[in-house]
Amino acid sequence: MKDKTVLVIGGGILGLASAYYLNKKGFQVTIIDSGTIENNCSFGNMGYLSPSHYVPLASPGIVAEGLSYVLNSKSPFYIKPRLDMDFFKWAWKFYRSSNQKTVEKNAPSLEDLLKLSRHLMDEIRADIGDTFDMETNGCMMMCHSKAAFEKELKVAEGGKKYGLNTVILNREELQKYEPDVELDIYGGVLFTDDAHIHPGKFMHAMKNYLEKAGVRFQLNTTVTGFKKSASGVETVNTDHGDFQGDYTILSAGSWLGKLTHKLGHPLMIQGGKGYSTTYENVEKNLHYPAILVDGRCAMTPWKHTLRIGGTMELSGLNDRILIKRMHGIYESVKKFYPGLKIEFPTIDKIWTGLRPVSPDGLPYIGALNGFQNVFVAGGNAMLGVSSAAGTGKLISSLLENEKPEIPIGAFNPGRFS
Ligand SMILES: Cc1cc2nc3c(=O)[nH]c(=O)nc-3n(C[C@H](O)[C@H](O)[C@H](O)COP(=O)(O)OP(=O)(O)OC[C@H]3O[C@@H](n4cnc5c(N)ncnc54)[C@H](O)[C@@H]3O)c2cc1C
User: Fold this and answer.
1) Which residue, 282, 248, 325, is CA-closest to 69?
2) CA 190 distance to own-chain centroid
């Protein structure tokens, strides 16, 4: 494919992963991004590679749980009331997807993608070198209450059919796994197939690798429109001129809805805002990344560095920081780990990013409705890091007309049309 050119719109982890596999196949790739690729959603997240997350975000009980939080300003879930037809349509589809039948239908496809990606991340590490602190010691699901623990045991049981390995731990056993920090936790489950990376370092490593491999980066350039031909996109219009490619990949994260609108086939996407803060020089740090199940937030250690983060705020495409949401995260962490010596961060130390969330929690991977040369790689929601490698690999197979590595029907971008 040496003579074929590809424009990748969006340089988050989905865009870079797609570029990586396309470049390997010999395509000439240009990544166009409206920023500098130094701080999009793919940087300040928790960095989990989670085959354990086979239950999609849209699942039974999620809507009721969300609504129960709405009046609490520190809650892990927030919807900003607003008159927005796209949001209403998305919310309706999300509500309709949050049932057992849909979960049972979608979970195997999601798990296939997560497992493929987990395996590919080992290959990428071997290929580009590990400068991104990848660790393969699993992920702890920490439960403060007995009820949450019992629910988590069911998730562990359900994971057996996907071959997921777990270790069930009571309070005393957990404390042995985390000897340096006092815990106040009822019990936990260690999912041993999970791993984690430092996502910001990974993004830098991947960008450096791609630059050396000949991928072009057109930064500070916003895609503003498209000139269509009978079968696809002929020209991509930007605020820095027009670009042409044989193929166009749409990987613009939470802005995918806006972009696909310009093509007349808007995809349903909402930005699910999350927050994090990162502590350096933590003397007595965690040894395992941990999801605080009934605290609805997460913690990732890298040697003496610790990141805490979480929340899902549906308030549109903005980067406004609601400090009370960070308070909610901090208080949960202190409740689970009373012995951890960390201070509440100043506002300049709070990071925020927008997860691209589809109504069923599954990504969009495949050709955009009605186009032969436009493909979508996005909408990976809470699992963009965990599923980027597999998504990129699938995109490269689709462009080559090769059989995809896993069945991709569930990810069809046209599934809500
Ligand atoms: C607090 C938090 C914790 C998380 N933890 C994890 C985790 O542990 N594991 C996991 O798997 N996932 C996690 N996620 C989710 C993960 O971060 C996202 O799914 C992922 O980063 C999305 O990547 P993306 O490439 O789709 O989008 P982005 O990283 O947002 O990149 C999209 C890019 O498109 C560009 N763009 C947009 N519009 C245009 C345009 N018109 N023209 C040109 N460029 C454009 C933007 O500038 C941006 O650089 C977390 C998210 C948050 C918020």
Assistant:
1) 325
2) 21
How many of the other CB atoms lie within 10 Å of CB of 241? 9
Question: Is there a contact between 102 and 367 (Cβ–Cβ < 8 Å)?
Answer: no
Ligand 1 centroid to Cα of residue 98, in Å, is 23
Task: Kindly state the tokens that stand for 353.
Answer: 């990013």
- Looking at the domain that runs over 5-411, which CATH code has it been given? 3.50.50.60
pLDDT in tens, 378-398: 999 999 999 999 999 999 999
315 with 273: CB under 8 angstroms? yes
Count the neighbouring beta carbons within 10 Å of the beta carbon of residue 11: 30
**Domain boundaries defined on the chain:** 5-411
- The per-residue pLDDT for range 15-30, each reduced to its tens digit, is 999 999 999 999 999 9
Q: Shortest CA distance to 15 belongs to which of 198, 250, 364, 217?
A: 250
Give the end-to-end CA distance of the chain in Å, rounded to a whole number. Answer: 32
What are 244-280's pLDDT values in tens digits? 999 999 999 999 999 999 999 999 999 999 999 999 9
Indicate whether residue 200 lines ligand 1 (CB < 6 A): no
60: its two tokens:
């039974």
Q: d(Cα 244, Cα 248) in Å, to the nearest integer?
A: 9
**Mutate which of 41, 233, 302 for ligand 1 pocket (most atoms within 8 A of beta carbon):** 41
